[in-house]
């Protein structure tokens, strides 16, 4: 009924009285206990292994390295974590077992800890630590403290870290408390007088917090299920099936689970959730029982046990052990063993396949020179190899006289020593045995690994045998089957229970007489491989079938097979086998040359490839000749070969050319327009998909808004269909839109990894698929998506490991995805041209798309799509579309371009048209004004090529639709206003603007913070609709002007009156001497050029901009040019004879004519009712009056972009007042009709 804390205090008080025998407890006799306190055995050390969530192995710093007492098993006092289970007994791990061990592994492995030993206890399997072992044993318990905890660890145990009862707690975090606080264990409820943790109350408090927080085993959630494929106990064939998937990945992250020997380990690979046996390629440590074997194991345990490592897999051996190289913290682990003289290199099959072989050789050479450990008796000798004198070990190889007793295949067999006294002794012992009747069922139950007598089925002889497999349950019938391995002969068969007998220990104690061997220096095909059966039959014929004796020269002892557990296991002698009466070895006799016929030439000559055995590898003779600079690649005959073989030949020749090997010694490479890019990799977000092979990526490392932030990246070595150019009337190629849309959906806004590879001078003919300048340098690279969509990894799985010049990042290569979907082709580079580091993977992806007839490789036409582009159509056409757009409340659209901070080009899929769209009631700074580029950058990052929704309110005179836009349910205008990058324009009222209150709120927030365009904002008071609002009060800019041209619709051009610039330009023009018309062809002005043009009404020469020009070169003086007079605002068409080139000093000054419109009123355009009358009246009171005017600038409208002709460019919205008048022209224009 009481609180836990009060209850604990009562219990502790009673226990103390019992110990001190106080009053009523004076005659108390404490019960027997199986725990005993440990005093003064505290120590410091490093954690070597996490056995389970409540058991560690710690290397004591005070004990010499290599001593058996150095590693101490410490069970955490007074806690119990979920049991690990035992696979041999088919016991599954309890929930959260793996999570508890992984938590401690990541926290503790290799870390320095302080250990307080507290008590030892006789532990049974029921209540001991969570690992299996002997039935009853004594275990040591203690508290372990981490002096340097991880961030957050101290917070988890803060409430209880001071609860040290029997001594002061060391500085740091109690690991047992951490385990309990995470919900990875329970506190043991000890009986009275049982020893317990000195910090027992702190543990109870940590457990209580985990219970209240429902963490780990205390939560209602199930532990995440994880199926781990254990290849260490599976058949070797299953390991071979996994080999291709492991070879595809360059460096595979793994965790070392166990150190089996100095060079052999059990690893867990998280990426494919499997455990494998792994051995160093080309490196061997002493075997168990040999000198220094235990020290090699100790070194590896300290260095890599339960550490995160990286591996590269080369192959898999016959036992299912993967061979390769391993790195820990970027150090090749094999070099550690070699430098410490605890291992030797084995390069009898060549070191070319071993990663970083030169480092291993260097490490071994250093150890030999110092004569350390296994090299202490090393004697140097001289051996000439390839013209160099190398130091080598010279010793006599061991030779045996043997007979072959069994042939397995794959160049492997068993032998027995010929004339050995041991053989005769065993045979005599067996002959003297009297074989009894079959044992009574149940009285004799042999199990796996036992040595028995078994009757061989072919000759009924009784021989010593090892049980390989036995029935799981007790024997019930004499016909139950046992698989046995005859240890004196090497053969294996299945026999009934009635054919086996127990054997006298004196007979079974002697080691088996059969020795497993394999032929050295050659690789013989296994029985499952091509020609394997023939090779096995031939080996049987020349050895076991011949009945001859042989001389076996032992080249090497391979201990990777472990102990003898059946046929093909145990230590293997790698030998040269020579018949006593023969000179040639069986190894040499087994060598065969394999010829693969590829085709015939026009003269019926056979064309083929020659393959031969060289040690453990099969080599292509043609490829070797090319690799050594002794032959050339011939295209026509290579076309008969497979693509892979052809690529290898081509790559080998190219490498020889680069290195100038032998016949290529004087080779001069051709000029190339590509240049490699090094060390320019970066991460960023995709802002724009330009085409199917070109992206714009915002570099995360470059500050936002910087011109260098957005980088254009063309995908290396691929070419997608061209986008075309509407200005040149070039249509997009088939599947262009599909390729870009595919990448848009996959990449826009996604984080990517970019590997820059090369830059190239690109022409329009062979460059990326967008139009631009004639010749320019473009940067090419590979782009990887770390978080691919479902199914993406499958599309590139067959080729994702083909990273040639560097390791491939985690993720999917976008170029491969494009090719696999049939949206591009691989560029066939010329020799010495830079290319993708993953070129082979791209070729493989293209081949798959070809075979699958996808995209551009299919016979189907790309779906036709007609898109109405209203951005280049007349404004009237846009107005015709207005009703259909207004009918739909929220229209899905895609942002194609960001033209300015508030103006965009949108594509509307529902009606297949593109429109110009501007945010209603919101304006950003114009081009060239402060913060205009930042507003564009914000919109590009936020909405470029994103899916949005719009509501259209109206359309303006230029055909631009006005309305509101939402992206992910956020009003886009609020983003600009909140950032201080836009202002609201509500001179015509805010009632027609969607969510106007949100826009006003966002603008108010930016004003209050004085952000960006509001940095100089000064508040004032203004009364509006009876409310007092804070508004900006500043003096409006006023100009003195004359009107030079009236357009209609309330728009006109003005020129500053009395401005010195005007007088200066006029003087410069007056001083010019106008030459005769230029010779046709010598002067070809193009659109946008500034020239001198003769005005048709008064024949005066004025500065003008070319608005339209003939497409071809000028052929006649009468060819027409449309020009815009930049100092007056009028526009007309003139002949070629009426234009002249202009001096740059005259053309450089900006035009003097400024486009304006009347503020606060809407004047009908010339096409509308009363538009002509309005235009005529405006002409009369301005240009026709000859007066000067005062122009009050109310607003600058930059939506017109740059000046490209009449009616374009920045527009001043003004109040126009004649100097000698009080009423404005704006007011005079207002008319009321009834």
TrEMBL record:
CDD domains: Tudor_AtTudor1-like. GO terms for molecular function: nuclease activity; RNA binding. One of its GO terms (biological process) is mRNA catabolic process. GO terms for cellular component: cytosol; nucleus. It comes from the Eukaryota. Residues 41-220, 250-377, 398-666, 680-859, 889-1016 form the TNase-like domain. It holds the Pfam family SNase. Residues 445-510, 1084-1149 form the Tudor domain. This is Staphylococcal nuclease (SNase-like) OB-fold. It comes from Arabidopsis thaliana x Arabidopsis arenosa.
């Amino acid at each position: 009924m009481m609180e836990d804390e009060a209850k604990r205090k009562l219990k502790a008080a009673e226990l103390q009285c019992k110990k001190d025998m106080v009053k009523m407890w004076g005659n108390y006799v404490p019960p027997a206990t199986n725990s005993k306190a440990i005093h003064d055995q505290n120590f410091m050390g490093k954690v070597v292994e996490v056995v389970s969530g409540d058991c560690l192995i710690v290397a004591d710093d005070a004990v010499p390295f290599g001593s058996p007492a150095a590693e101490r098993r410490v069970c955490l006092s007074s806690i119990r974590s979920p049991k690990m289970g035992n696979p041999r007994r088919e016991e599954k791990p309890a929930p959260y077992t793996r999570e508890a061990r992984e938590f401690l592994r990541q926290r503790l492995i290799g870390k320095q800890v302080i250990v307080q030993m507290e008590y030892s206890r006789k532990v049974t399997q029921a209540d001991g630590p969570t690992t299996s072992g002997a039935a009853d044993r004594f275990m040591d318990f203690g508290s372990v403290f981490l002096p340097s905890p991880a961030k957050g660890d101290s917070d988890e145990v803060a409430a209880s870290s001071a609860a040290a009862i029997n001594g002061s707690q060391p500085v740091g975090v109690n690991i047992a408390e951490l385990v309990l606080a995470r919900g990875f264990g329970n506190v043991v409820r000890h009986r009275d007088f049982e020893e317990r943790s000195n910090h027992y109350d702190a543990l109870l408090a940590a457990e209580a917090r985990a219970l209240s927080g429902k963490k780990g085993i205390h939560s209602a959630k199930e532990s995440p299920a994880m199926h781990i494929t254990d290849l260490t106990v599976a058949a070797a064939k299953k390991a071979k099936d996994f080999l291709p998937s492991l070879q595809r990945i360059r460096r595979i992250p793994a965790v070392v689970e166990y150190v089996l020997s100095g060079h052999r380990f059990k690893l867990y690979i998280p990426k494919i959730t499997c455990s494998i046996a792994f051995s160093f390629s080309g490196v061997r440590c002493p075997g168990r029982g040999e000198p220094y074997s235990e020290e090699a194991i100790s070194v590896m345990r300290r260095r890599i046990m339960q550490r995160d490592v990286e591996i590269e897999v080369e192959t898999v051996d016959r036992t299912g052990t993967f061979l390769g190289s391993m790195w820990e913290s970027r150090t090749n682990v094999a070099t550690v063993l070699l430098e410490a003289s605890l291992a030797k290199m084995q390069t009898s099959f060549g070191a070319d396949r071993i990663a970083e072989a030169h480092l291993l050789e260097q490490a071994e050479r250093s150890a030999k020179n110092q004569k350390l450990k296994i090299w202490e008796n090393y004697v140097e000798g001289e051996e000439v190899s390839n013209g160099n004198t190398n130091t080598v070990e010279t010793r006599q190889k061991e030779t045996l006289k043997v007979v072959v007793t069994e042939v397995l295949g794959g160049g492997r067999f068993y032998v027995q020593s010929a004339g050995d006294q041991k053989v005769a002794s065993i045979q005599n012992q067996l002959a003297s045995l009297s074989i009894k009747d079959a044992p009574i069922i149940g009285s004799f139950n042999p199990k796996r690994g036992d040595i028995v007598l078994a009757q061989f089925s072919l000759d009924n002889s009784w021989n010593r045998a090892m049980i390989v497999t036995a029935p799981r349950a007790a024997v019930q019938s004499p016909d139950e089957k046992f698989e046995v391995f005859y240890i004196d002969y090497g053969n294996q068969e299945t026999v009934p229970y009635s054919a086996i007998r127990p054997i006298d220990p004196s007979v079974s104690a002697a080691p088996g007489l059969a020795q497993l061997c394999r032929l050295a220096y050659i690789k013989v095909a296994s029985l499952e491989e091509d020609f394997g059966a023939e090779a096995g039959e031939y080996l049987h014929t020349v050895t076991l079938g011949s009945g001859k004796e042989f001389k076996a020269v032992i080249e090497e002892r391979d201990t990777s097979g472990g102990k003898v557990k059946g046929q093909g296991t145990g230590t293997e002698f790698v030998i040269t086998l020579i018949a006593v009466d023969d000179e040639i070895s069986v190894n040499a006799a087994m060598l065969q040359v394999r010829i693969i016929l590829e085709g015939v030439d026009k003269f019926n000559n056979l064309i083929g490839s020659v393959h031969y055995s060289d040690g453990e590898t099969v080599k292509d003779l043609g490829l070797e000749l090319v690799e050594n600079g002794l032959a050339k690649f011939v295209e026509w005959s290579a076309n008969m070969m497979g693509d892979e073989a052809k690529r290898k030949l081509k790559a080998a020749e190219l490498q020889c050319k680069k290195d100038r090997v032998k016949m290529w010694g004087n080779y001069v490479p051709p000029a190339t327009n590509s240049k490699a890019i090094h060390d320019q990799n970066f991460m960023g977000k995709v802002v724009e998909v330009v085409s199917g092979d070109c992206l714009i990526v915002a570099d995360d490392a470059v500050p936002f808004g910087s011109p260098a932030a957005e980088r254009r990246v063309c995908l290396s070595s691929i070419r997608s269909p061209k986008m075309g150019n509407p200005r040149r009337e070039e249509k997009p190629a088939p599947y262009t839109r599909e390729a870009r849309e595919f990448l848009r959906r996959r990449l826009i806004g996604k984080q990517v990894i970019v590997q820059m590879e090369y830059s190239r001078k690109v022409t329009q003919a062979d460059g990326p698929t967008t139009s631009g300048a004639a010749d320019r340098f473009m940067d090419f690279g590979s782009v990887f998506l770390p978080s691919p969509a479902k199914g993406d990894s499958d599309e590139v799985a067959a080729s994702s490991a083909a990273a040639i010049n560097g390791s491939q990042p985690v993720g999917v290569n976008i170029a491969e995805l494009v090719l696999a979907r049939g949206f591009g082709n691989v560029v066939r580079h010329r020799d010495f041209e830079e290319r993708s580091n993953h070129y082979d993977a791209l070729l493989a992806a293209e081949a798959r798309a070809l075979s699958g007839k996808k995209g551009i490789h299919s016979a189907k036409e790309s779906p036709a799509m007609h898109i109405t582009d209203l951005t280049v159509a007349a404004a009237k056409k846009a107005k015709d579309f207005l009703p259909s757009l207004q009918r739909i409340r929220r229209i899905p659209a895609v942002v194609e371009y960001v033209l300015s901070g508030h103006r965009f080009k949108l594509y509307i899929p529902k009606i297949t048209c593109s429109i110009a769209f501007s945010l209603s009631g919101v304006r950003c700074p114009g081009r060239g004004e402060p913060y205009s580029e930042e507003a564009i950058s914000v919109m590009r990052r936020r909405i470029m090529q994103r899916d949005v929704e719009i509501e259209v309110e109206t359309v303006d005179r230029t055909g631009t639709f006005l309305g509101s836009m939402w992206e992910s349910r956020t009003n886009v205008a609020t983003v600009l206003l909140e950032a201080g990058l836009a202002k609201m324009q509500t001179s015509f009222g805010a009632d027609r603007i969607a969510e106007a209150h949100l826009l006003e709120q966002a603008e108010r927030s930016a004003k209050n913070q004085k952000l960006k365009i509001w940095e100089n904002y000064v508040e004032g008071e203004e009364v509006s609709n009876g409310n007092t609002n804070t508004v900006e009060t500043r003096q409006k800019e006023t100009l003195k002007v004359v009107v030079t041209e009236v357009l209609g619709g309330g728009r006109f051009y003005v020129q500053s009156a009395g401005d010195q610039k005007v007088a200066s330009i006029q003087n410069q023009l007056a001083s010019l001497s106008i030459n005769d018309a230029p010779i046709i062809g010598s002067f070809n002005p193009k659109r946008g050029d500034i020239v001198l043009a003769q005005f048709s009404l008064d024949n005066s020469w004025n500065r003008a901009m070319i608005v339209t020009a003939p497409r071809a070169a000028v052929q006649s003086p009468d060819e027409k040019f449309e020009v815009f007079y930049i100092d007056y605002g009028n526009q007309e068409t003139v002949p070629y004879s009426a234009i002249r080139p202009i001096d740059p000093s005259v053309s450089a000054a900006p035009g003097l004519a400024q486009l304006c419109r009347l503020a606060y009123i809407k004047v009908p355009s010339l096409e509308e009712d009363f538009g002509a009358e309005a235009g005529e009246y405006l002409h009369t009171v301005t240009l026709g009056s000859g007066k000067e005017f005062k122009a009050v600038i109310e607003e600058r409208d930059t939506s017109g972009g740059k000046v490209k002709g009449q009616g374009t460019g920045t527009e001043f919205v003004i109040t126009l007042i004649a100097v000698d008048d009080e009423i404005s022209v704006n007011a005079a224009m207002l008319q009321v009709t009834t």
